[in-house]
Amino acid sequence: MNYSFGLRGHDIADNFEEMCQKARENGISKLQFAMAKTMNNIDFDKLGYDERLACEVKEKLKEYGLDVSVLGCYINPVDENRTSLEAQLRRFDSFIDYAAAFNAGGVGTETGSVRDLAYTHSDENYRNFLKNIELLVRKAEDKNVMIYIEPVCIFTIYSVERAAQMLSDIDSKNLGIILDIANIINAENAGRQDYIIQSAFDSLGEKIRAVHLKDFKFSGKDKQFALAGEGELNIGLLFDGINQMQKKPDIILDETPLEFYGKSCDKLREILGR
């Protein structure tokens, strides 16, 4: 299989026009696009959804042949500060409208933390997360937009098992997963990496709609991220899972500066023998 790899827009440039130009120059056609990080002169909390801006973005993306795999709107949906939480939920709500306007694959977020790790992982905090995110899922259903949840070991949805529970508790065709194995692995479970990868595809399956691809290395208990193919990630096993899927997820290189994009793509194709 001939794989293509997308990149995060803000790893290309921190200016929208420059991002589009450099993406085309480097043969990049798929983006994870966090508008607030490349249009940093706009306060999206104040602006909300703006139809004129949405049309301008849509036309510019089309001009440069760019598809948005993930529209990034990373919020803390368990924020205990009610004012802050409501502002973040409103922003995410408006990004659902933006995603509909330029046909993004989905709107992506991590799941936030509160107090300490034990409480963040608690059932009580999980139930609070469900209550907040379900409102957004219903809006996404109305707009025919996907919401993508990215599990991270220090956040509310912290494991494959918790992600599968979420998909069961919020039964919606508009809810999917961004799989980033490097974000699920920690010092305690690193020895079970192969099991975690296999269980992700077994239990999340076709709900995996995007894959973030970065690597990791451990020095004792300290984890450091690395360019894909330069660490301890079992890339072969990960792609075995991807290859078995009926609908292939978009693959986005993560923590990869633009100057290393070509090198990383070559390294991955070398590992994969393609």
Write down the secondary-structure element order: EHHEHHHEHEHHEHEHHEEEHEH
List segments where confidence is low: pLDDT < 50 over at least 5 consecutive residues. none
Tertiary shape: globular
Instruction: Kindly report the spatial arrangement of strands forming the biggest sheet.
Output: 1-2-3-4-5-6-7-10
Report the CATH C-level class.
Alpha Beta
The end-to-end span amounts to: 7 Å
CATH topology description: TIM Barrel
User: Helical region count?
Assistant: 13
CATH superfamily: Divalent-metal-dependent TIM barrel enzymes
Q: Based on helices, strands and strand pairing, what is the structural class?
A: alpha/beta
Largest sheet: 8 strands, parallel, barrel
Number of domains: 1
Q: Identify the CATH architecture.
A: Alpha-Beta Barrel
Question: Mind explaining what this structure looks like?
Answer:
The protein has helices spanning 9-12, 16-25, 35-38, 44-47, 51-63, 82-101, 117-120, 123-143, 160-169, 181-184, 193-203, 235-243, 261-272, and strands spanning 6-8, 30-33, 67-72, 107-109, 147-149, 175-179, 208-213, 215-219, 222-226, 250-253. With 274 residues, it is α/β, with parallel strands linked by helices. The protein has one domain: Alpha-Beta Barrel (TIM Barrel). It has an eight-stranded parallel barrel. A two-stranded antiparallel sheet has the order 8-9. Helix 6 runs parallel beside helix 8 and helix 11 (193-203) runs parallel beside helix 12. The chain is globular, with a radius of gyration of 18 Å.
